[in-house]
Structures are given as C-alpha cells and as structure tokens.
Amino acid sequence: MSHAMKLPPRRSGFALLLVLGMLVLIVGLAVGFLMSSTTELRSASGFGATVAARNLADTAVGLVQGQINLAATQGTGVAWVSQPGMVRTYDTAGSLKKAYKLYSAANMISSTVDVAGGKSADEPPAAWKSSPALWTDLNAPVQTSNGKVYPILDGSVGSNGLKPEGFSLGTVPGASSWQPIPMPVRWLYVLQDGTMVAATGSGKSATVAGASAANPIVGRVAFWTDDDSCKVNINTAGEGTYWNTPHTVTANEVNWGKYQPAKGEFQRYPGHPAMTCLSSVLGVSPSHATLSNDDIYAITPRISTGGSNGKTVVAGTTSTAVGTTIPTAAIAAKTQRLYASVDELAFNVARTQNSTKITPTDIAQARFFLTANSRAPETNLFNLPRIACWPVYSNLAPTRTTSYDQLIAFCASTSGTAGNNPYYFQRQTNTNPTTDISLPRNGTLYKYLRTLTGRAIPGFGNNFLTKYSDDRDQILTEIFDYIRCTNLYDDSMTGTGKTPYTQAPGAAGHGWVAPTVNNITVPVTQGLGRSFTLSSFGIGFICNADAAVPRSNDLVNNKALRNTGNVVLAPGEKVVQAILIPQLFAPMMGYTTITPSMKMTITGQGAMSLTALPGGGTSQLFTGTAISGTENYNGLLSYIINGGSGWGGHPSWRFFTNAYGGSYPWVSVPVKLAAGTTSMLLAGTTLIVTFTDIASGQVLQTFNVPLPSVVLPIPALVNDPSLVSPPTTDLPNWWSFGVNFPNTSAYPSIFGTFPGRLSFVSSKGQGGATTPQLGNPVIDTYDVVRTVQPAHGDFRVLAGLNNVPASTYIIHPDYRDTTKMWASTLTEAYSTASTQGLSLGSYFPSTITAAQYRGTLAAPDIIPSATGTNTPEGTGDFDSGLPNIPDGAYINKPDEGLGPGAAGASTYFDYPWTANAAGVNFFSPNRQIPSPGMFGSLPTGVKAGVPWRTLLFHPQTSHFGSSHLPEDHLFLDLFWMPVVEPYAISDRFSTAGKINMNYQILPFTYINRSTGLNALLKSERVYAIPNADVQLGYKVGPQVPAVDYPVDATQTLAQFQTKFQSGDVYRSASEICDLHIVPLGLTGASVATMANTTTGGFWAGMRLTGENLRERIYTTLYPRLTTKSNTYTVHFRAQSLKKAAASIPSAWQEGADVVTGEYRGSATIERFIDANNTSIPDYGTNPDATPTLDTYYRWRVIRNRQFSP
C-alpha cells in the first residue's frame, strides 16, 4: 500500500515565496536592462543624430570649397573675385560669367547677380520668421547666465556695445528687441542619397522635390560664408603713424626728415600691413573711450614701440635731445606667438590679461570685424604668378644677397626652394646696359610679360599692345630697369662682408646704373637707368680782352693776346672765346647719390667758325676741321660740388665744365674782333655727343645736337668791381676760362697768375643769393649764351632713346634775338636767389599761370614746351622734387634713405649734400618699395614721341592712361611687393592682412561693414599743394601750411556704396586708382569737385601737386588691398531630421516631423599653394602650361568652432 507524501504547510509557502522573489528579481533585472538599453539607444541615437548633423555641417563646408574651386580654377581666361557670400567670374570681354553663392540659396550658381538699389534678391523677406520650414537665423543668440551670446554678430554692436568705424545697419528684416540683427538664410534639405534641395512652400510646411519613402529627408543645413579678408587681421595690423620722404617745406615734412622710422618700426613703413589701424575696430566701447597707440602695440604680437616712437624721437639720436651722435636703435622684434584666434587677444604669453582696457566683452563683439587668419593670393587676373618688384642678385649668390632678398625670392618662386622658377628680376652688373636683361630668366620673364600684356585682360577686356603699340615693350623695359635700379647700395650689408649692387660711396659707379638696352624687342627699347641724359646744349662766349681796359691789354700777362697775333689790341678791338656747355639730367632723382662712371665725347660734323660783322674776317673756333674731344667724368664726387646735383635731376652745367680739376677739351681758341664789329656770325654745325660707361666701355646714348648758325651780340669784358669777392677774387679771374687750347692737361692761366673761370669754379663753390655769379664760368649780363633743347622739355623721353635724333632739339625762343645776351635753358642745381633764375639765365615756364617762384629750388625744372599738345600743365605728369630739388620730369626713384647730418639739422632739408648713408638701422625693403605703384612716373610715349605722358595710377578721366582702354592701373596687377618683416607676412604668392575692397555682404545687404577699409584709410594722407603756396616758398621756406591731409573716409567710401548699389564689384585691387580719395578738412574737397577736370575743379587749384605725390596714397593703399581671398569662415546650422510615421514623404512639416540633432558653429578654411610641390609648371616659360596654377591650390581647415555657449 502506497502513501502520498505531504509537505508541511510552512515549507510549501516558503518555496512559493522563493520562486516569486526570484521571478520579481528576474523581471526587475529584465526591466532594468530594457530601460538601460532604451537609454543607451536614445543616447546612441542622439549621438548619431549629432554626428549626422555635424557631417551635414562638413557637407556645407565642402560645398563652399567646391563653389570656390569652380570659380577659381577656370584657367587664364577667366578672372574671379570674392566677397562675403559670393565668388564671381568674368570673361575676357569684362562680362560676368557666373556668380557662385557661398550661402544656402534656392539657386547656388547664377548667370546674374540680382542686386537692385543695394538690396539682394536673396535677402530674406520681412516675415521670414513665419516660415521656419524655409528660413533659419544663423545669428540666433542663446541666452546664458551672462547674457545673450551671438554666433556671428553681437546684437549690441554699434548701439550700446563696441562701436567699430564703418559699421551701420539698414532696414533689418524681422528685427526685434530680442534679436536686433538676424541673418536668415534658406534651409537646404538633404535626402538620403545626398541630394541637397531648396524647398518651396510657406509657413511650417515645405515641399522637398525628389524626396520619397525610398529616398527620405534625412537632414537640412543652412550656411553663410564670410570673407576673412574683409576683416582686420590682428597678427598684421597695428596703429599706423604716417611717414613719407619729404618734398615740401611744411612742419609735417620737416618732422618727417627729423623723425624717420627706424628699422622695425613697421607701423610707419609706407604700405605695410602694420599701418592698418586696429583702433578702427577696438577704439571705442563702453569699457573705454579711446585707445592710445601704446595700448594697441601692447596687444599686437609683433609690433613694438621705439625707434622714432611715432614721430617723437629724432633720427640719429636716442632721445628728443638734438646733438648726440648715437644712432637710433632698431626696434627689437617681438617674439610672441601669432594669435590663432581672435579670442586669444584676451591673454598674453604669460596667460594673464592682455589689456585692462580691452575687455572679453569687447573681444567677443569684435569677432565680426577681426580675424587671426586672412590671406589673399598674389596671382594676376590671368590666374598666373605676379612678378615681385624687388631685384635679387643672380642665382642668389650668398655674398651678394641678404636674408631679405632670400625670403623675397622664396615668396616669389614655385617648385620647391627659393630660386626655382623665380618670378622676380635678377641683376648682376650696374655698368653694362645689356648684361642684366640678357640673364636667361630675365629674358623669360620679360617675354612672359609681353605675352600677358598682349592678351585681353580677364574681367576688363582690351590689351596693352593695342593701346600702346611699340611703347608697350618700351614700358616693360622701363619697368624692368626701374626694378633693377632699386636698392642700389644696400645698407643692411654694412659690416657683413657682402657686396652691394653698386660701388661704395665716393667710388666711381656708386648709385650709378647704365640704362638697360633691350635687344629682345624690335625696335630696341631702352630703360632710363640711374645715369645722365643730355637735356640741353649750349655755346657761350666771353670777352678775354678789351682795348678800352688797359689792364686786359697786356702782352706779358694776357696770353690770349699771344694767340691772336702777339700784339696789343688796337682801339676798338676785342678778343672773345667760346665754350661748349652740356646740360645733363638724371631722371631717377633721389638718394642714394650718383657718382658717375661715364665719359662724354663730342665730335662735330663740320668746323665751327666765327665771323665779325660787318665785313670782318672769319676764324675757326676749334683747331682742325671738326670738333672732337672726350671728357672723363669717372668718379666725380657725389655730393654737390660747385652746385652739381649728386642725387639726380639737373646737376649744374658748370659741374660738367670745370671737369673737377682736369682739362676741358671744348674751349675754343681766342678770336680777335676788329674795331667796329657790332655782331658776330656763328657758323654752326651738328654735334655728335656720346655718353659711354667707362667700366664696361659700352655706349649708353648718342645725341645728334644741332647748333644752327646765328648772328650774335658781342660779349663784354667783366669790369664791374662789385663782382670782386674779397679777399681772394679779382676781376681777371673772369677774363678767361683758364685754358689756352683744347686738350690742355691742366688749367694754365691765360691772364697772369689768375687761374681763370673754370679753375675758380673748382675752388670757390656755388655762391648764393647775394653773389649768384660767384663761381659761374659764364655771367648773364656780360657773356653771350645760346642753347638748344628738346622741343617738349620732357627729359624722360630723351633718356628712353638709345639714339636721339637732331629733330628732337629746337633753338631757344630768343636764340636769334641779337638784343638778348642770354637765350639759355641752363640751370643751377642749388640756388636760393629770390628771383627765378635771372642770374642764371634760366628760362622756365611755370606750371601755374603767372606764378612767381621763389628761387630755382622752387622753380619747376621744366623748359618751354614749344611743340606738341602735351604739357606738364595739361597732364600733370611731372614729379615733385625733394626739398632741395625743383619739380620736374623725374621717375619717382625709391628713397634709399638719408642719414642725419649736423647736430640739430633736419634730414633732407639741411646739409643735403653731405648725403650720409641712412645706415642699417633705417633699412627696409618695404620702406623703399611699398608696391608697383612706384612705377607711376614712367613715361609711356617714348616711341610715339609723346612727352608729359606717364603711367596713370590716379583718377583723371581726361588722361590717355584712363580714356584709352585698358586703363594703365592694370599694369599693377602683374606685380607685387612681398612683405617680409617682421615675419614672412607674405608666403608663396600670398600675403596676409590685405583688405578686400568688395566688402558688401550678400545676401545681408542691410549690414554695412566697411570697417576694414576704414582701418586702412585711417593712417593715410592725401597730398594737395595749393597754387598759392608757390609764393610762400613751398620748396625753400619759410614753412608753409601742411599739404598732406587725413582721409575723409565717409566721402571716399560713398563711391564703393555707389558701385555696390547695382550689384557690381571691384575686379582688381588696382581699381582703387579710379577712386577719389577725399582729403578731410580741406575746403572744397569732394568727390564731385575732384572729378571735375575743368578749370573750376579741385585739382585746378592744386597744380603744384606732382604726380608722384598725387599718386602716393594709391601706391601705399594698393599693396594692402585685394579683390579675392584665400581665407573664408563658413557659419552653419545643420540638423538631422526624421520624418513622422505616415507623413507625406515629399514634405516637411515643422513641429510634426522630428529634428533629431543639431550642430551650430563655424569653420575657417584657407586655400594655399604647397611650397614643396615640384610639379608646378614654369608658367614664365609657357603661360599656357597645363595644369593651370589654380589646380595646384589645396585646402586646409584653420579652425573649427562649435557654437555651444
């Protein structure tokens, strides 16, 4: 019998509880696991959505890169320009090809730019906020415990916050007190296959073309791209203090001579990025009313105080105390790191606050106006390399180049190290006219320029070959020669064992350059060199003896009588003697000084004779059947000797007749005139004058000079006791030239022990206002002088000719007037006579009607324009001379500097003939050459025979350079000047810190940000010399009121706004030359009056302003301007999306469909050329080589910044 077992009731209940407990535990663990999985899933989904959103942001950045690449890689026939929000391309007819939008829009590439009345068609509507499915505000702020934070532009800027110059707002669509500056753009919806679509619709509903269940909407992105070159670069900018080489006697310019910028004082270097003013951004805010220069230098990474200390410390001293001889020390370069972002302005290298005045709030509000990264390409409109306008010794020879040269060479080369495929001109010798142009690479680059100037210019159309014909080649040769003549004696080589381009001071060849003769071209073209040309030629007659003056009629002492029969003169007889007088001119006037390496040879095509009238006999003036002789001017001292100008322009003609102690071959034999002679007949001839470089033996120029036959009055014997200058000068010194016959080896006295005029010139110097005749070999009231000169008076045109024909020269207007003793254009280099050249016989027209100049320093070095339609008065194409040199036909030589003279002296004004070297503490390449704007005084009519016409780099619509297309300023686009101090601001064909002229912001045209240009203009000056200053002594003193004025930025920038109103932009930075830079505080100055070319216009009242001064501001602005950028910041808002279940696949419904993730921020990107890429073709050899240079640009991301305050 079996029995079932029974458990006790308690044990049965315990088991149940145990099972139930385990079940609960298992369920709890399962629920916990499920809950954790859900959280992780949500987290993973959120992270995935964020990653997806960030990827969408990267897609926006990539899209922007693609847009820029499309625009910038179309080859040599398409120009491109950039601006905030857009890149455009132009063809060789100057027409718009495409507009590539750099913001999210319905149509990303367009054939038109729809801007009317200054308003973009893509500007959001006023009610954009009511359509959140279509529009989003990229500048939407986020509220934090410290207030609102904006991702792009702080809403308090310009109102109760930072007040940058040039910032203003128009009518802002959808503005509110919460968000005063919205920046809405369209959403671009992204489909699963990657397609990006601009939706249509309104309100909260958007229709997305192409979306479907199989290809759903997965995200959307909105973006806008800023052009960083429209901002001020905190690594390169500073606070500029203006400086220029002095030209007039004003308080400002006298101080410029005293307070020269020292080495390292970049904020005073003309055209340097450090001249751009940070105060235009940071100057005024709630935290401070103003900032001093020192406040700004304290936060800049590479700019220091010191040197001239902003025009307060005298050059050549260590303090304002004058009289010491301690050289001004170069400023020690800062070694701080460059800023990586604007935010780093808050801290210095010690990680403490950078400035107590500039607060973090100021810095945050300044982000829209400042950048730490901005670069602009140094490629021309053909998208090919520009040529650097700094000369480098051939093959970068270590003993002939400095670190500056080598860095410039690196910046201007492609394919690896410096010197590989160089795009700069090289030089080797200053004494041979063909050697440098014959260097292989120079010839290659010259042909490169010929090719480009013969093509239609992208963005503009037309070409320079059609415009200038043979003068196109002549202009290019002049430019080559100008660059070759830069930095003639490099002071930075002092004490280094290196050898400058020209010889040492005082040695033959110092500051001397034989003009380039270019045999590459047909016809041959010639540069202007740093040498002399023949500006005029004269013959002078003096009286050796007069029977009426017994002291002169002495057989024992007067050797002139021995040469005329060795008998005393009968009553009424006289003895006369002739001298040939060359007047020379050096168009490249300036410092360093010139010590010639030349000789002059004169030969005649026939004999020259003198016949006494009436009925007298005929005598040969020069022995032999023809005139001949050579004078060696090798090594003449380079400072003023007897009035000889050592720095260019017109040296004194007597400087070249005294022969510096040697013989002078072109003095005639004495000729006796019979009693009763009332006049003389000079039988003239054509003279062949040849200039030859002594070192190379090469002929520099040949002149065919006609001296036509003419009836002349008879010279008088100098017998005026007032001409005696005690205690050493006696009248017999004036009775001879001191030479019996030509080719005499010394200066034997003709009259007793008196040395004669030429020797007296050598020993006595130039004289002055009270004794203007002192030391002159001819005297206007006693002697007879006749000269011939160029018909036009523009000596630059002569200097550009290898062989000057006789037709170039015409006789002086008074040449045949027998009542005039003097008919002469001879001039002195240095005189303070109160009347214009009367004592010197100078014949000057004034550049101003009926003007009376104060002395020959003030009188323009210009002779009458007897023929031709161009005059200096009409074109304004003359240069203002240095303080001690008259205005004239110069070519704007780069100033190599002048060291301080005597204690208390003002450099450039006092003791200029001392010509002290500026020294290493004042040397800088960028001080000498700000930009190719320096070429503006080069003549453009040499081959065509058109005088007083130079390259035009300022607005003047009536000028040939502007009225005949293409405009001259487009020559500038072919060149650049690398900036290599205080660090390599320039890199391979790019420069940091440039400001984009195209500052209009698309599509947000209601935001005006011209701040970058305000910062650029702030430290600049406009020259305008009033006509009335001619009588105030603007060249000789006393000091006249200032002739340099600050810039009226408001009036000047209004011209930009006018251009932008119609949607147009600037295509080349050289177009700055078309704009009127209006002076501030000058009565009557406005865009309208400056554009008026009639007699009632502004410039009609400022006709003393030489072209070099009028164009100076364009020369210093151009290197800091650009129209295309390498650096951009893309601001974006990206969202990952998920469609709601059962919703329409092709539509997005705001609020119903789901935003799964968002990423806001910005990315700064930069295009660059790899310096080590050796595969880049040599475009100098073949401008059409492929691939084009554009294709070698690469991209790098400078900075990613998430907006997550």
- The overall pLDDT average reads 87
Topology, number of strands: 50
The helicity comes to: 10-25%
> Tell me about the biggest sheet?
6 strands, antiparallel
Radius of gyration: 38 Å
Tell me the fraction of residues in β-strands, as a range.
Answer: 15-25%
Shape: elongated
Provide the spatial order of strands within the biggest beta sheet. Answer: 13-12-16-47-49-50
* N-C termini distance: 87 Å
Low-confidence stretches: 317-327, 637-644, 740-749, 762-775, 829-851
What structural category do the secondary elements indicate? alpha+beta
- The total of helices stands at 22
Structure summarized in a few sentences:
The protein has 1205 residues and is an alpha+beta fold. The protein contains 22 helices and 50 strands.
Structural account:
The protein is elongated, with a radius of gyration of 38 Å. It is α+β, with helices and mostly antiparallel strands and 1205 residues long. Helix 8 packs across helix 10. It contains 22 helices and 50 strands. The protein has a domain of 304 residues. The strands form 16 sheets. A 6-stranded antiparallel β-sheet has the order 13-12-16-47-49-50. Strands 24, 25, 30, 35, 37 and 38 form a 6-stranded mixed β-sheet that branches. Strands 29-26-32-33-36 form a 5-stranded mixed β-sheet, with no helix packed on it. About 5% of the residues have low confidence.
How are the SSEs ordered, and which strands pair?
Elements: H1 9-72, E1 79-83, E2 86-90, E3 96-101, E4 109-110, E5 115-116, E6 119-120, E7 135-137, E8 142-144, E9 147-149, E10 167-169, E11 184-186, E12 188-191, E13 196-198, E14 200-202, E15 205-207, E16 217-227, E17 232-233, H2 251-258, H3 279-282, H4 293-297, H5 360-366, E18 370-371, E19 375-377, E20 387-393, H6 403-411, E21 424-427, H7 435-438, H8 440-453, H9 464-468, H10 470-484, E22 517-518, E23 525-526, E24 533-546, H11 559-562, E25 574-585, E26 598-604, E27 609-613, E28 618-620, E29 630-632, E30 671-673, E31 679-683, E32 685-693, E33 699-707, E34 710-712, H12 757-764, E35 784-790, H13 795-799, E36 803-804, E37 809-811, E38 822-823, H14 855-858, H15 872-875, H16 925-928, H17 960-963, E39 975-976, E40 986-987, E41 990-992, E42 995-996, E43 1007-1009, H18 1011-1017, E44 1022-1023, E45 1044-1045, H19 1049-1061, H20 1087-1091, H21 1107-1110, H22 1112-1117, E46 1121-1122, E47 1127-1138, E48 1147-1149, E49 1154-1169, E50 1193-1202
Parallel strand pairs: 17-18, 20-21, 20-39, 33-36, 35-38, 42-46
Antiparallel strand pairs: 1-2, 2-3, 3-4, 5-6, 7-11, 8-9, 10-43, 12-13, 12-16, 14-15, 15-48, 16-47, 19-41, 22-23, 24-25, 24-35, 25-30, 26-29, 26-32, 27-28, 27-31, 31-34, 32-33, 35-37, 40-41, 44-45, 47-49, 49-50
Helix pairs in contact: 8-10
